[in-house]
Design a protein that fits this description.
Layout: H1 10-13, H2 19-32, H3 35-50, H4 56-67, H5 77-85, E1 88-94, H6 102-121, E2 127-130, H7 132-135, H8 138-145, H9 152-175, E3 178-181, H10 186-203, E4 210-215, H11 221-235, E5 239-244, H12 249-259, H13 269-285, E6 290-295, H14 299-311, E7 321-326, H15 331-339, E8 344-350, H16 357-366, H17 374-387
Parallel strand pairs: 1-8, 2-3, 3-4, 4-5, 5-6, 6-7, 7-8
Bound molecules: flavin-adenine dinucleotide.
Flavin-adenine dinucleotide binds next to strand 4, helix 13 and strand 7.
């Protein structure tokens, strides 16, 4: 198979799926490809969960099991082991969102520490991840990003957020487990960037341990990266860079319009793609100073990365470079890349069913026929069903 149709191999893509799992995935993507159904479905599910109706079992056996590894980290082990047998690593992602109390921030930090300790013993889990708003209130990040002064109480609260970052990054450094810090809304990102840079200065003294995320639907990120790179070289620390396109486009545009500031998002999909390619090329050309995690389901971006690696003589399994996809999506990219010897890791979300609902709803929404690549996913599943004569 030539390189540019590498991802068409459905036998490799779905090698871990039994016939019934394949049928379930097909049924699921068929359902969520209907946008109105997703809208009605998410409203009904939210209502049913709030009203304590017994829908957890139904959610679990459909969307949850497709997009999540389990309700806790132990529950994810069979999935982690099975994928690793085929060369695909796991990034366990505690996907509980929107709980804004100190206790839940501490709990999220403890989970991350536990995963790093767990990862230290398990080759299949070389990387950990957390979300900024998992460790502190969005309001604080926003206030800090806007350059406003904190009250005394807020100052204290912020120092606890900073302490959580330090605790996680310090353990990650001790255990040599890389840690990715996700990116969220732009109006919180300035504070996150500053804090993550502080972590990189402290812990990325040799090979990169701490990774910041660049959302490349933002037109300002290449300039940001170049400036960050200058500071890193001047002050002697290395960079961990995760690149994604960005998941909050509509929200970003609406807020910019409503508040009357220029949109931080590229004007078109093509402009985002171009920006993504430029930043990916920049990082690949400077791999001596930085490591790269490419989080994408875009086939062309992956082909381009493979071409550039080839051109720049970067070995497929170079440990400064990872490809990443989400569990339950784009297995044709993950498993075919791994089969060719590239480093691949899938984010494996986990958490109690009702707490991961916001995550599941985002997945369902981005996979509707309007927004996403469901047709591609459906076609691949169909090809594999036919190949297996189901
Ligand atoms: C492993 C992994 C980790 C991730 N971590 C994060 C994270 O930390 N933060 C985060 O925000 N997202 C994250 N994402 C999600 C990611 O940002 C994208 O939403 C998702 O992957 C779809 O983009 P794509 O590159 O896979 O594919 P594509 O389908 O090629 O791109 C879709 C994306 O292009 C952009 N886009 C679409 N239409 C337009 C338009 N008209 N104008 C401008 N841009 C447009 C949007 O960003 C959209 O999401 C992650 C994804 C993966 C796979």
């Amino acid at each position: 198979m030539s390189k540019n149709n590498l991802f068409d191999n459905t036998q490799i893509a779905f090698q871990l799926k039994s016939d019934s799992e394949l049928e379930r995935a097909y049924f699921l993507f068929k359902m969520i490809s209907h946008e109105p159904l997703v809208r009605i479905g998410t409203a009904a599910t939210n209502f049913a969960l709030k009203a304590h109706l017994p829908v957890e079992g139904l959610i679990r056996s459909t969307v949850f099991d497709h997009f999540c590894g389990g309700v806790n980290e132990e529950d994810c082990l069979p999935v982690i082991d099975k994928m690793f047998e085929k060369g695909v690593s796991s990034v366990l992602d505690f996907s509980v969102e929107g709980q804004e109390i100190e206790g839940s921030f501490d709990a999220a930090m403890e989970k991350t520490l536990k995963i790093i300790n767990f990862a230290d013993e398990k080759e299949a889990m070389p990387i950990a991840v957390f979300k900024p708003t998992g460790f502190g209130r969005l309001y604080l990040y926003q206030k800090k990003s806007e350059g406003k002064l904190f009250t005394n109480d807020e100052e204290q609260e912020w120092s606890r957020v900073v302490a959580r970052y330090h605790k996680v990054c310090k353990l990650a450094k001790e255990k040599a487990v890389e840690v990715l810090i996700d990116a969220e809304e732009t109006w919180t990102q300035e504070a996150v960037d500053t804090l993550v840079e502080e972590m990189m200065r402290t812990y990325n003294t040799g090979t990169p341990i701490v990774y910041n995320t660049l959302q490349l639907y933002r037109w300002d990120r290449l300039d940001y990266l170049k400036e960050l790179h200058k500071r890193a070289k001047r002050d002697g620390f290395s960079l961990g860079i995760k690149i994604v396109r960005g998941a909050y486009m509509e929200k970003e545009r609406e807020r910019a319009e409503e508040k009357g500031y220029p949109s931080p998002i590229c004007d078109s999909k093509e402009a985002t793609d171009d920006n993504f390619n430029k930043v990916m090329t920049y990082v690949l050309k400077h791999l001596d100073d930085m490591s790269l995690f490419i989080g994408t389901h875009n086939e062309q971006s992956c082909y381009l990365a493979m071409d550039l690696m080839n051109e720049l003589n970067i070995p497929k399994n170079d440990n400064r470079l990872w490809f990443g996809q989400l569990y339950g999506m784009s297995d044709h990219i993950s498993f075919n890349l791994a089969d060719q010897g590239y480093n691949v890791a899938k984010y494996v979300p986990f958490g109690p069913v009702k707490d991961v609902m916001p995550y599941l709803i985002r997945r369902a929404e981005e996979n509707t026929s309007v927004a996403g690549q469901t047709n591609r996913e459906l076609n691949l599943l169909k090809t594999e069903k036919e190949r297996r004569k189901l």
